[in-house]
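Handoff note, outgoing to incoming analyst
You'll be picking up this chain. Sequence as last confirmed:
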Amino acid sequence: MDDAPETPRPSPSRSSVKVYGGGGAAASSSPRRASPVFAGILVGIPAAVVWALIAYLTGYEIGWVAWGVGALVGYAVAKSAHEPSASLGPTAAALAVGSLLLAKILILEFALPPILTAELLKNPDATTGMFVLDMTAHKSFSPDVQALLDQSEARPGSLSDEQQENLRQQMGAEVVARVSSASRAEKERVARAGTARILKEMGFFGALKDLFSAIDLLWIFLAVSSAFRIAQSKSS
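Most recent structure output, in case you need it:
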């Protein structure tokens, strides 16, 4: 009996091979981009640091820099978006607000003290006032004046009106003499101490609130709206 003919088997071809998992090598080799939130944070933090650094170096809090911070955050969010999304605009706006708040905190902590110190040194009356506080705190008046001050503090009302007036005049004369003979380094030391005292009395949130002037609010509005519009344009 003749052997039965073998049934031909189909040879595997390229077209019959299926790859599961989506995209294959082409998809795996495509570059992955950061999420919009992460990209906005990566840009917003350095931008906030740059604004604080500009304020520290120049001695001025240049408000329009805030507009640039918001625009950069919006551009970063839009650039990193994989696909259109209605949430891009609000996301960029929120990140812009966070970046601007961070910048204000950095300005308060690092740039405002030297700025305020420089302003005190420019104002003779303010410098004199700082010396009054410094000499009072360190009890550095002449012995006779210091004795009267200690008596007035220990026993309020123990000095007559004439004694109190004479005491004020003597204190003023000694402060003026001290200021006129003080070196630049001593004036800076007293001004820095006065700055620290002022900021401590204001408190963190009080000083931070004072950093937001009406013109600052305008620049912040422009910054946040720019971040929103730039990022939202990606969703159209």
